[in-house]
Amino acid sequence: MSLWEEVETYLEPGGGLSRVLPSYESRPQQLSMARATSHALTQGSSLMVEAGTGTGKSLAYLVPAALWAMRNNKKVVVSTYTKTLQTQILNHDLPLLRDKLKLPLRFSLCLGHENYLSLRRMGRAAQIGLFSRDEEERQMREMSNWAQTTQTGMKNELQFEARPAVWEEVGRQKDLCMGKNCETYNSCFYFKERKQWYGSHLLIVNHHLFFANVASNGGVLPRFDAVIFDEAQNVEEAATSFLGLETSNSGLSYFLDRLYNARTKRGLLSRLHHPAPLSAFRQTARARSVADNLFNQFFERFGRKDRVVRFYSPPPMENILDAPLKELHQMLKSLETLIESDEERMEVTNAANRCFEFQNALSAFFKQGLADYVYWLEILGRKRGPRAALCGAPINVAKELKEQVFSKIDRTVMTSATLATTKGFDFIKLRTGYEPSEELILDAPFDYKKQVLIYLASDLPEPTEDARTYLNAIADRTMELIQAAGGRTFVLFTSYEMLNAVHAKLEARNPGYPFLKQGDLPANLMIERFKEKPSVIFGTNSFWQGVDVPGEALSSVIIVKLPFDAPTEPLTEARLEDMRRRSINPFQHYQIPRAIVQLRQGFGRLIRKATDTGVASILDSRMSKRAYGKQFLNALPPCPTTESLEDVREFFAVRAAKSAAAEAEKVAGS
């Protein structure tokens, strides 16, 4: 029996999944994707597939991947972008295959080493009393208690948000690991997990860890034979982020304070059994003073309020921190040779390596010699003092991805509910360098014409018009739509500034529905509260994708503005310039396609199952006034559209009447 024939026995009507899961429905789109995935794995080829919401995408690749891996004793990496999808795969989909279908499948969640508690470091931190603040001491005590009961030692198990200063002292760090020479090796959470990785058929990772593995030449994950990227529209940005550089005043201060804080008299140098030379204390203090001086020069020149400044040439100041960091690095390397304790020597070695990394990143920023990179300064004004970050990122990662990933792995699948634009996969292939053997676009199995009404607010001012007039109009229309839906609304923004402004205006009107604003609560807690009673969520990027709220709890999605990237944002600006240099129209071939993919993500929050209904409102009047608006509309599923608010109210009134009638019939029948 071929792989596909075996896969089909589970996914076809009346097949294995139907027998163990009464709610399971076999879908033609799911079968098509599963067949293509089976072929890619069997033939050692590549596949790009867009599978609309509701196709059962994850099972369409997990069933072939699991069966292929078990048949051939192979490993498949499944890489996701959001925790939501990762949680669904780990807590629902894979247990379904293992427990309900009785497949002898082994799978593991792979997290970066820094996510695990180090028992040795925990014990040492408890002994030497590292913390002077009450809150940090309290967290330390709670972590000590947790360490006695946890089975995994994973940071995300904690019932509180661990302070960075505390986790830095007790979490695992690669450069501080003693391996088999550690007294806690046999009970080490990280190594116990890694043993499971090597025995697993499927490894579930996120995009960031995947690229960490690429950067380390395969030093993070076990060797694998195939990779499936879900939420693949984020692969380019994940790779760009990982390949970039960033050095901040807060990061440097934190590092130097951990080395030695002159105010508290605490730090690594002060607790070594071999007394550190006085010169090391002085050099740490000097580096801290020079770092403050360097970043103050940036503040004096560019201000202390929120700001982003792109550098088209090296910054107009000297890298005065280069020499102090070099000297500090050399002192730490010398101190390393004097220390007898393996544990303390590793601490000093790690500090020396971190010092070297800071020096290299600063040097790269000031010299700006990396080919095809863009550099910028980010200033974030804060009450306790401004944060300044010196950043750099590659303008185009397509060549790097092609050389380091796609040319080295025979079997690859890139998938998402939103990969295509009006020109198919041209955009995503151009941005990632991916050249699949097979391409497949599968529609969602929903009747959008009956389930969704699209409202276009053509009468509102454009975003470029008078700011106050625009804000007032958006706030008023948003409130009318919220009231029409009876709450149950996501309001999606492209900036925190606009989100905060609209939220402040509407909250003052006391609408009678809980208003949940991104940033006030963790996203998962916001979703829980949203489901409890009719509410409104005001969200930015993280609520455009990876959020799943089926049923009546979410009946209205309001997209305030077409999600164009700000053309003045340094990385976007550099990409546009790069395309112009190559005689490519960046608006048509970059800005519009990226915004279309993002718009489709936001729209996709509304309908999650066949019984869902709702209104998707786009308050950007350019949808109606500009020629490119048709490209956005054509990229959405075919739905009835309206420019009348009365039609929206009627839609919800009819839905409410049907719901009431169905409830009455249910009561009468009982």
What labels describe this entry?
670 residues; single chain; globular; seven-stranded parallel β-sheet; 13% strand; 18 strands; alpha/beta
Estimate percent helicity: 40-55%
CATH topology of the largest domain: Rossmann fold
Calculate the terminal CA-CA distance, rounded to whole Å: 49 Å
**The CATH superfamily title of the largest domain:** P-loop containing nucleotide triphosphate hydrolases
> Describe the biggest sheet?
7 strands, parallel
Mean model confidence by pLDDT: 91
Per CATH, the architecture of the largest domain is 3-Layer(aba) Sandwich
Structural Rg = 27 Å
DSSP helical segment count: 27
Question: What fraction of the residues are assigned to beta strands by DSSP?
Answer: 5-15%
Number of domains: 4
- Strands ordered across the widest β-sheet: 3-4-2-5-10-1-11
Question: How would you describe what is shown here?
Answer:
- There is one protein chain.
- The protein folds into four domains: 3-106 and 200-225 and 410-442, Rossmann fold (3-Layer(aba) Sandwich); 115-187, no CATH class; 244-396; 448-660, Rossmann fold (3-Layer(aba) Sandwich), CATH 3.40.50.300.
- Helix content is 50%, strand content 13%.
- The strands form three sheets. Strands 3-4-2-5-10-1-11 form a seven-stranded parallel sheet, sandwiched between helices. A seven-stranded parallel sheet has the order 14-15-13-16-17-12-18, with helices on both faces. A four-stranded antiparallel sheet has the order 6-9-8-7.
- The protein is globular.
- The model has no long low-confidence stretch (mean pLDDT 91).
